[in-house]
Write a structure and sequence with these properties.
By secondary structure, this protein is of the alpha/beta class. The chain contains 13 helices and 6 strands. Strands 1, 2, 3, 4, 5 and 6 form a 6-stranded mixed sheet that branches. Helix 2 crosses helix 13, helix 3 crosses helix 7 and helix 4 packs across helix 13.
């Protein structure tokens, strides 16, 4: 038998969540979300709604829903369900108890309309705010890449060969196989690192050494070597760059130093067969790694506290949008942490 319903029960429950330390409440208060409104409206809304129809959901409201997805790495259907059953989510979204929430299709459509370029604009906008506040220091940059896995494709050897050549198997393009082709990711690639095998993409990132904020990134298929996007991540604002041995290339380092005089590039030394590291090189590696390891903290945080570095999209355009969103979602959490640590005012 259920007990008598408590008047204002939702308010009592939310008060308890606040006392327990609701992280979404702290995050919501650390950032002035209105900074995104103008850009979100331009990216996702049409100018004229005079022909009628149901009014669209507020753009900040929808953006926050996308962030909840990214912070928890969940699909659209699960997002719709959790919005309706979690009070902390409803408070973060600014919902009243019982207020109608968007369905999974509406959430999907908002992301599709936003696209990878729109998500990138939001990422850049937020980073501009962080730079003005001095949270991005440019005192040192950490460059590294991480695999972003997608659902594995079950193709035969011949199909994989054709895809690697940048083509699509002929029988996939027939009308009767249209549904099959829509579920095939012809941009993702296989890659092997040590004993690990990955299928999908790579997130090549540049992280601010002091704040651990993601400053820039590039998305490629998983088989692209880390060193290829590296030059594009370096700018005149970089004074010191720390990378692991995968980025060891004397000519590339010389070219970057010629282009950006004064830049210092610290590369972890690699041992080779019959050429072990000297004591001096080991000592240098130790000092470089003490700094460079901070980029690993970023990937570890996303893996442990944001549902893992795994996406469910198809094609590099959607993968780029999702990975950009993941990087932005991480930066928002990192910035909120720095605000809570009293290293910055509220971000607006």
């Amino acid at each position: 038998m259920m007990g008598q319903q408590i008047l204002n029960g939702a308010d009592i429950q939310l008060s308890r969540l606040s006392k327990l330390g609701d992280p979404l409440e702290r995050l919501g208060a650390a950032i002035n979300w209105e900074m995104f409104r103008v850009k979100l409206w331009r990216l996702t809304r049409k100018d004229d709604y005079s022909k009628g129809g149901r009014p669209p959901f507020d753009v900040i409201f929808m953006f926050k829903i996308i962030l909840l997805q990214l912070w928890n790495n969940i699909a659209d259907d699960n997002t719709e369900y959790l919005i309706n059953c979690r009070l902390d989510w409803q408070r973060f979204l600014g919902m009243e108890l019982g207020e109608k929430s968007p369905d999974a299709k509406t959430i999907w459509l908002f992301k599709e309309t936003l696209g990878k370029d729109g998500m990138r604009e939001l990422f850049d906008l937020f980073n501009e705010k962080l730079e003005k506040l001095g949270m991005i220091t440019r005192e040192g940059s950490l460059v590294d890449a991480t695999f972003v896995d997608v659902p594995r494709q079950r193709n035969n050897r011949e199909e994989n060969k054709i895809i690697k050549e940048g083509e699509i198997p002929e029988d996939w393009e027939t009308p009767e196989n249209a549904a099959k082709l829509a579920q095939k990711d012809t941009d993702a690639r296989w890659a092997k690192k040590g004993n690990e095998t990955h299928y999908g993409y790579k997130d090549h990132t540049k992280v601010d050494e002091k704040s651990k904020v993601i400053v820039d990134f590039e998305v490629t298929s998983a088989n692209v070597h880390d060193i290829k996007p590296f030059p594009g991540l370096i700018t005149a604002t970089d004074t010191a760059v720390y990378v692991d041995s995968a980025y060891a290339d004397e000519k590339l380092a010389a070219d970057l130093k010629e282009k950006y005089p004064g830049i210092k590039i610290y590369v972890v030394h690699r041992a080779y067969k019959n050429r072990p590291l000297t004591d001096e090189q080991k000592a240098e590696n130790h000092e470089i790694s003490k700094v460079r390891c901070r980029v690993e903290h970023v990937f570890r945080y996303i893996t442990r506290f944001m549902g893992g570095i795994y996406i469910r999209t198809i094609g590099i355009a959607r993968a780029a949008r999702q990975i950009c969103g993941m990087n932005l979602a991480y930066n928002l959490k990192r910035a909120a942490f720095l605000v809570a640590a009293k290293k910055s005012p509220v971000i607006s």
